[in-house]
Design brief:
341 residues, Fumarase C, Chain B, domain 1, 8% strand, 9 strands, 2 domains, Fumarase C, Chain A, domain 2, single chain, mainly alpha
């Protein structure tokens, strides 16, 4: 593999090779990844190995699950993965904690968090009562090859994106109430005529949230500004993008991504399932989707704080209009929002 793909390693050295792959690749740097990311990666890796194409013993999967259940979390540096070769560095730091060799050196066991304390990997596993594993043939590659940390971060990002999308729809509905918005822009017939699933969903959610309102549609305005009127189209497109990204990430966290893969007796195929391109591309797409939600949300904040545009609400939403100028209201939060988008 790698630049040494033409070298044949004797079978008697296979265990040493597996251990060397972990030791030599655990050279990341930077601040540690958050605990939630490492735990997500551990679960994704365990799931990957259960696909049955990685050539590992049940013991490897069970050890990862036991670490999750007992709260042993490897300390994994955040920098050092290229993605194009999988997450070799981060996965190797993870593997240092639960793998060992006949020498069983404490200084080669990495670091882990257990019960709020940072310990060597060997000590953390000892306190948790989890035996460390001497890897066998192929198992070194099986545990450190694949875009597992990328997929784990992606899965957590998707979860947050879905939540933020829901929040944005609630904020949109409240903004419509506050500024006496028009109802026609959310009429189901309008959105069915275009047929874009995301905008249909957003408009429907707004109708549900504002059902029975005595404020929306209470003026004689024909239409509102884009930040209100076009919100289903913008936030709906983002919802569709989030849905697409979710599909890719869900496939990735349920995929066999190491290399080579085993398919039958004497059938070993070398390929590139470790490559992180699918994850990297949809994460860029996800960033665009969230940026658009943020941008249109900021425009509504701006409109609500501008006394010329906010439907007779106080300037900058000060609590006492007579004290405007003495108090700044929400002027600076709006500035902050504008600076972020």
């Amino acid at each position: 593999f790698g630049i040494f793909a033409d070298r044949r390693i004797p079978s008697r050295d296979s265990a040493r090779l597996s251990r060397n792959l972990i030791l030599s690749h655990a050279v990341g740097t930077g601040q540690p990844l958050p605990v939630e990311v490492v735990r997500a990666a551990m679960l994704v890796r365990a799931n990957t190995l259960t696909k049955g194409h990685s050539g590992v013993r049940f013991e490897v999967v069970n050890t990862l699950l036991e670490m999750l259940n007992k709260g042993v979390t490897p300390v994994v540096p955040s920098q050092g993965s290229l993605g194009s070769s999988g997450d070799l560095g981060p996965l190797s730091h993870m593997a240092l904690v639960f793998t060992t060799d006949l020498d069983d050196r404490d200084e080669e066991s990495g670091l882990a968090i257990f019960q709020g304390e940072q310990l060597t990997g060997r000590e953390a596993m000892r306190r948790a009562g989890i035996p460390r594993i001497i890897l066998g043939p192929k198992e070194g590659l099986a545990v450190n090859n694949g875009a597992t940390f990328s997929a784990a971060i992606g899965a957590l990002a998707i979860w947050d994106a879905v939540y933020l999308s829901d929040v944005a729809e609630a904020a949109l509905s409240l903004s419509l109430e506050a500024m006496l918005g028009c109802t026609s822009a959310f009429d189901a017939r309008l959105h069915e005529a275009r047929g874009q699933h995301g905008q249909i969903a957003v408009a429907g959610k707004v109708r549900d949230l504002t059902a029975g309102s005595t404020l929306i549609g209470s003026t004689n305005r024909v239409q509102d500004a884009y930040s209100l009127r076009c919100a289903p189209q913008v936030q709906g497109a983002s919802r569709d993008a989030i849905g697409f990204a979710r599909g890719v990430i869900e496939a990735e966290i349920n995929a066999a991504t190491d290399n080579p893969l085993l398919f039958d007796t004497n059938v070993v195929l070398s390929g590139g399932n470790f490559h992180g391109e699918p994850v990297g591309m949809v994460m860029d797409f996800l960033a665009i989707a969230l940026a658009e939600i943020a941008a249109i949300s900021e425009r509504r904040v701006f409109r609500m704080t501008d006394a010329k545009l906010n439907g007779d609400l106080p300037p900058m939403l000060v609590d006492n209009p007579e004290a405007a100028g003495l108090n700044s209201g929400l002027m600076m939060p709006q500035y902050t929002a504008a600076s972020l988008v």
